[in-house]
Design goal:
The complex is a heterotrimer of chains A (486), B (223) and C (278). Helix content of chain A is 50%, strand content 10%. Chain A is built from 23 helices and ten strands. Chain A has helices at 14-22, 25-45, 49-68, 70-84, 94-107, 119-124, 126-131, 142-149, 166-177, 185-202, 228-234, 255-267, 302-306, 322-325, 328-333, 344-355, 372-376, 383-394, 414-428, 430-442, 454-457, 468-477, 480-485; strands spanning 86-91, 112-115, 136-139, 205-208, 212-214, 219-224, 238-244, 248-249, 274-278, 292-298. In chain A, strands 1-10-7-4-2-3 form a six-stranded parallel β-sheet, with helices on both faces. Chain A is elongated. Residues 1-8 of chain A have low confidence and may be disordered. With 223 residues, chain B is an alpha/beta fold. Helix content of chain B is 28%, strand content 22%. Chain B has seven helices and twelve strands. In chain B, the strands form four sheets. In chain B, strands 1-12-7-4 form a four-stranded parallel β-sheet, with helices on both faces. In chain B, strands 8-5-6-9 form a four-stranded mixed β-sheet. In chain B, strand 5 and strand 6 (139-142) form a beta hairpin. The radius of gyration of chain B is 21 Å and the shape is globular. The termini of chain B are far apart. Chain C is α/β, with parallel strands linked by helices. Chain C has two domains: 31-146; 152-269, Rossmann fold, CATH 3.40.50.11810. Chain C is built from 13 helices and eight strands. Chain C has helices at 38-43, 45-57, 73-78, 81-94, 106-119, 124-135, 140-147, 167-171, 176-184, 207-210, 212-228, 239-251, 261-269; strands spanning 31-34, 61-63, 101-103, 137-139, 159-164, 189-191, 233-236, 258-260. The longest helix of chain C is centred in the C-terminal third of the chain and has 17 residues, at 212-228. Mean pLDDT of chain C is 93; it is low at 273-278. Chains A and B meet through helix 2, helix 3, helix 4, helix 8 and helix 10 of A and helix 1, helix 6, helix 7, strand 9 and strand 10 of B. Strand 9 (274-278) of chain A pairs antiparallel with strand 9 (188-192) of chain B, so a sheet runs across the interface.
Chain lengths: 486, 223, 278
Amino acid sequence: MNQRIPVTELASDFKGRAREALADSQLRSNFRTAMDSLMRKRADAFSDEDEREGLRELGNHIRARSLSNLPDLLEQLETRLTANGIKVHWAETVEEANEIVHGLIEAHDGRQVVKGKSMVSEEMEMNDYLADRDIECLESDMGEYIVQLDNEKPSHIIMPAIHKNARQVSALFNEKLGEHVSEDVDELIQTGRRILRRKFLEADVGVSGVNFAIAETGTLLLVENEGNGRMSTTSPPVHIAVTGIEKVVSNLRDVVPLVSLLTRSALGQPITTYVNLISGPRKPDELDGPEEVHLVLLDNGRTGAFADAQMRQTLNCIRCGACMNHCPVYTRVGGHTYGEVYPGPIGKIVTPHMVGLDKVPDHPSASSLCGACGEVCPVKIPIPELLQRLRQENVQAPGHEPVSVKGAGSKYSRKELLMWRAWVMLNTRPAFYKLFLWGATRFRALAPKKAGPWTENHSAPVPAARSLHDLARDHLKNSSIRRERL
Amino acid sequence: MSARTNILNKLRTSLAGTKPRPDEFDESLVTGPWRYPPEERVARLRELMEAVHTEVHQTRQNDWPVLVAELLAKREITNLLYAPATPHGGQLASAWKDGTRKPELRVYDRPIEEWKVGLFNDVQASLTGTTGGIAATGSLVLWPDRNEPRLMSLVPPVHIALLKASGIHDNWYDMMTAQNWSAGLPTNVLLVSGPSKTADIEQVLAYGAHGPKELIVLILEDV
Amino acid sequence: MSELFYDAAPNATRVAPAREPERRYPDKPAEVSLFGTCVVDLFFPEAGLDAIRLLEQQGIQVHFPQQQSCCGQPAWTSGYREEARAVALAQLDLLDDGRPVVVPSGSCAGMFRHHYQELFAEEPDNLRRAEELAERTFELTEFLLKVCKVQLVDRGEKHKIALHTSCTARREMNTHLHARELLAQLDNVERIDHDHESECCGFGGTFSVRMPDISGAMVLDKTTALRGSGAAEAISADCGCLMNINGALEKQQQAFRGRHLASFLWERCGERQPGGEQ
């Protein structure tokens, strides 16, 4: 099996990848079309504003309540799952998580793994880890299968292959599978179904993610449309679920609003085709289902985010992808530009704790802070506020304590700091400011024709002949209203 | 120190001096907008399920086996997986004895390991019961068990589900409360809201991704 | 639903603040201060002056504190909190006289309304002053519509315009409907929707110079949509967006332009207005 090319190697940095993506008109149109459609579907699914806002508040409340009690809930979850016969494993790092998963597969002499969609397994780069150990780990979600076939990473957390159109998928199937398939979407999907059905039949181990882990009943809940999640968690003799430690909720009833928020925000569907609640392995009198079910709880930086009350809010995320669907930046540059597992607005705020802000220093700046992400977030994560916070962390001076975000300070520049200090002088001393206005208006003809990056897209800005300070002073001196009142 | 201890310690340190948030779950938010007069529940469920390509028939307790035979004949299906130990399975079996030519009935009576290939490659359709339905989202609720195991409603390309009209709840919250789900759940509970589908290529909807290509719901109006 | 401060510990898990109730507006005051904003000051001074004229037309005495400069937003959004705070403090001191403050820009108004409270969160006295300033800060369009309850009389020719609303006006100030309502009062003006109307123009302050490629793609789409709408010109109540949109149009060598709403309203409804003078 081919190794995946890490997307980060395609172009040197975020800006370089963005430039390449912006120049790719096919990619641009694929994303714009898809995101427009997803935005429309979400809007239709939440036609009643009061209902939507009430539900978002409830969603936020449930997530905050869960996080405020997270360690106890995790222990309760472990107790209940164990009582139900599900074995719980804990991993601080992706290496540990991969070792656990690999150990479980080895214990069953597993050679073939079939995987339902799981973003945590993407964090772990589980496919590559297992491939290096001669274990085939095949994605079974159609979109994931397509990107795996092309040695790519998902470009969207819900729609992994959204950057490709049917023609490109057809060409890929022809090339990699040696199958002549037309560009007809049904035909493409039926080809995938045929190939993956055989894998579901043969696989030794099924891997899945978890949308919500319910502490009260010891239940893993998965939503999906395709049925591959049900296949992966039912057909192979062993099921390994991997998830982040934040995914736990207290009660079964808590998932009612969360599932509704998730499916409506993500796809505009009232509910997904399947909601799959798993509360144990096969019982002695049952005829199918895995003999063993395992849950791997992964930290991977989450406790770091948790330590900061403001950044803790990133752990509210239920992975719906609405923020990227509505993001004007994501829509234009696509998911691969971000170079990390989680793209878009949510990626910008959850990635720093996983990989360090110094590895993604441009992410916080790649936003106009338009606020569309925060407006649609079903669990009300204040994404723009957190981006602003990360910008502060990015420019922390060396030696700043405490370090609340891993890799903070990598954008620190003494030159820029001095510039802002000069800006403070200008804007806190009216005499300076007026002198500046006087100079800028008086010598406007001398305004430079090139003004750095600004003039890449704009004509050079030319100050007005007289500032508002001047105009207002003169005007108000003669104002009739003022005279009357005097 | 184990990963478990480290993770829990870090979380506890971060929460030092704080108390858990009170539970202020406002159930009216998940029930209020999703209430229907009893006579409208079937119509609501039917509308939502049909919108995602489910074939829905309203029939009666005594009539459905004939309808099943017709639906299978129309599709030239030659075998059907069913559960003889259930009341509806018994009813189907006796209806099948009327002397006319009907699809062969098959039974899921062994552990999956003993006939996985057969289930995957040979079975053309299955018939299962449901434990109820949800009007708000257009969903069937299945509690797979020994008689009707988990793969029975997933692997065959056509899945026929029986739904008693009286078992349709307004919304999921009402159903789980009425049936006291929080007291404990079986190995697997499923909400099924249509045939398997995907929109992963260009957002174009395609049915029959990995699960059933067709979902046929028979609503028994008189029970 | 939830008490935001059920647990005062700084490390307590946060919930989102409850939805803002609809803002309650005071009666029309006799005097206001105009905070012109630095972009208007230097690049769109006429818009600021027209805002003053519109307010005076409503019989309000307008003050323009000559010591004002910038609201502090550029440093704030760039992550320079201390620097933003220093500049914010200067404005807070300047605008401390209790007079309502009218701002012809959604983003600077949003800074006063929301972010000053974040900047001064750790300073009880300044926080109280920031909260008080937030209470009496109004974006120009909401002030005209909701406080002055203005009834505009359109004296202009038939005209088609496209309205671009800044993201801060839309999402921080909730004033995107106010500009629409004002324009709807003009009998001869037809407002035409443009493609992806609610989408950001790509300005985002320093975003436009830190990420010029992405920002450039956004403003190209926005200008294309505005030009393609069939409108004769674009109107906006935010000069940051206008500087971005007009600068891009000029670079593209297009004749189409955007104009500040205050200038547009003054041109069509200026001079004496029935009921305007007290």
